[in-house]
Amino acid sequence: MLQESASKCHFKYQVEIQPFLMGGTDSAFYSKKGLKATSVIGLAKDGFPVIWHNREDKPDKIDKNNLYDMVKLSIQFVNDLEQLAAKQEN
User: Fold this and answer.
1) How far apart are the first and last CA of the chain?
2) Torsion angles phi and psi, residue 86, rounded to 5
3) Which residues of 66-77 are buried (b: 16+ CB within 10 A; e: fewer)?
4) Exposed (0-12), middle (13-18) or buried (19+): which is 38, by Cβ within 10 Å?
5) Which end of the chain is more exposed for a tag (fewer CB within 10 A), N or C?
């Protein structure tokens, strides 16, 4: 469903849904608790994360365009979930 939502956003880059096999992400805690969770990670052409955040991160490291894209995707995904829920209620 996230892939469908991403396609509606018309990003200038490819969005793929795939397992992340290199270790934990921020969503791992939730998955371990039995909740469905996902992480969105920008990967370079070699398949590795473009940047890897840590506790010393500062807001100046955030690319505002990338942040905007993730906000846009999040809003689209929530709207799609709401539409699905409304269909299931009827």
Assistant:
1) 20
2) -65, -40
3) eeebeebbeebb
4) middle
5) C
Structure confidence by residue, pLDDT tens digits, 67-84: 899 999 999 999 999 999
DSSP state of 10: T
Concatenated DSSP letters of 24-78: --TTHHHHHTT--------B-TTSSBS----TT--GGGS-HHHHHHHHHHHHHHH
pLDDT of residue 68: 93
Give the predicted TM-score (pTM) of the model.
0.74
Q: Low-confidence residues of the chain, pLDDT below 50?
A: none
Q: Which residues contact 43 (CB under 8 A, 6 or more apart)?
A: 49, 50
